[in-house]
Amino acid sequence: MNTPMHALAGAITEKFIEAAPEAAARALSAMATHEAVLLLSPLKAQLVVACLNPMEPSKAAAVLRRLPLRQASYVLSRLAVPQAARVMQAFSGPYRERISGVLEPSFVKLLAESSNYAEGSAGAYMRTDFVAVRTETKLSQLVERLKNLPRKKLPQFCWVTDKDGVLRGVIRAAELAFYAPQSAAGSVMTDCPSVRPDQPAQTFRKIFEESACDTLPVTDEKGVLVGVLCRSAVPFEPQDKKSFWRKLAG
Question: Does residue 195 belong to any structural domain of this protein?
């Protein structure tokens, strides 16, 4: 494919994924793997993620297998956890070991345990695309990191952990401008509620309803931050909505 045609195909694919990721996934799945890779490899990571999330795991694994290892690991770590686990299992044994070697050990462990998460649990809904910094990180460093993110990927919250990845607090991205650039993240962070991956829907729904948070951190049994749970990703039962409107009615 010549360069102008390749650029046009890439632009069309990008718009297709943005408008209808599930339809794009079906269309690319019907193509030969090398054709799908040709169209997906130049795209931004979030578009590749949006397309691979609804794709049949074996096809998604075949696509990732043909991307550069660093790019493949980056995309895999940002897929929905259940899909990432299925894709990981679809890899051949040698490639699974190879990509596991460049992924965070905590993420590899998370994928291995994800099959134990019940349907509707926090682990089934969480995602691993989040921004976390150490307690000693200067806010100026955090701001520079955020500047390099696409506008659509700017987070509402930045999570603060210790050197072992244990969650210590949270910083609202919108409040960064009010702090001195040389302040350490640990000195301005605030506490936040968290959930475990195996906790059921009624638990985190209640936390969402009782707090003003739209995003909750998900931590393992040692308190290590393994994911985030967004309110928009959680289906609320009809009675929850009725209760909300009943409260408004007074």
Answer: yes
Whether residue 250 is contained in a domain is answered as no
Q: State the DSSP string of 133-196.
A: EETT-BHHHHHHHHHTS-GGG--SEEEEE-TT-BEEEEEEGGGGGGS-TTSBHHHH-B----B-
Residue given tokens 């993110």 in the structure block = 149
CATH number at residue 159: 3.10.580.10
Which tens digits make up the pLDDT trace of 106-136?
Answer: 889 888 888 778 888 998 888 888 899 999 9
Does residue 51 sit in the same domain as residue 97? yes
Contact 123, 94 (CB under 8 A): no
3-class state of residue 74 by DSSP:
helix
Q: Tell me whether residue 111 is in a domain.
A: yes
Domain range for 200 is: 125-233
> Considering the entire predicted model, what is its pTM?
0.68
Return all residues near 193 (Cβ < 8 A) that are at least 6 apart.
207, 211, 213, 216
